[in-house]
Write a structure and sequence with these properties.
Structural class: mainly alpha
Shape: globular
Number of strands: 0
Largest sheet: none
Radius of gyration: 18 Å
Helix content: over 70%
Oligomer: single chain
Order of helices and strands: HHHHHHH
Strand content: under 5%
Length: 191
């Protein structure tokens, strides 16, 4: 029998979480967005199809973020009911995107450590994350204008605080990457 990969197991766990979430919505008559339901399951499948071969730390991060953003944020309307939820999600996305920036460096180098300086690697991770924060706001703006969404709440303040939160998240993400590298190096010296 073929062994089920860790990422596939994580997908099943998140699928179960979504089922429990939706069951709770119906049992307790909670308000839930149908759009969020479709996006949640669609996102779950998309992350699995696209990313099931990712390293587990990236895959789990993507699934957790998707669940928090779609399942809780849009689905259970945390965005509408918890004033700082959107800001927290943009901060978290900055952190995750810094990690994704690190992953893209390994892809560009076909799995070998990058031959550029550590400073250049961290600047790349920061820039990658901050640029994605800006691109996400362009996406929200386009959705608001073209599709009639209300993601930006018609406010430049929302857009700018989201970009700032994403950029602060990028700084935190790079700091975490630096800490991980330092801890790993000190551990490897002891072994």
């Amino acid at each position: 029998m073929k062994k089920i990969s860790f990422n596939t197991k994580i997908t099943f766990i998140f699928f179960a979480l979504y089922v429990i979430l939706f069951a709770a919505v119906f049992i307790f008559s909670l308000v839930f967005s149908l759009q969020a339901l479709v996006l949640s399951f669609g996102g779950l499948l998309a992350v699995w199809v696209i990313g099931h071969k990712l390293e587990s730390k990236y895959y789990v991060g993507a699934q957790c973020f998707l669940f928090a953003a779609e399942g809780l944020g849009a689905g259970l309307q945390f965005y509408a009911n918890i004033s700082c939820y959107d800001l927290i999600m943009h901060l978290c996305s900055g952190i995750l995107l810094a990690f994704l920036g690190e992953y893209t460096l390994t892809l560009f180098n076909k799995g070998t450590p990058p031959s550029i300086s550590l400073l250049s690697q961290y600047v790349y991770c920061f820039t990658f994350s901050a640029a994605c924060a800006g691109l996400w706001e362009i996406w929200e703006f386009s959705g608001d204008k073209i599709l009639g969404f209300n993601s930006q709440l018609g406010s430049l303040d929302d857009t700018m605080t989201d970009i700032i939160a994403g950029t602060i998240g990028a700084v935190i993400g790079v700091f975490i990457l630096l800490l991980i590298r330092k801890i790993s190096e000190s551990y490897n010296k002891k072994v």
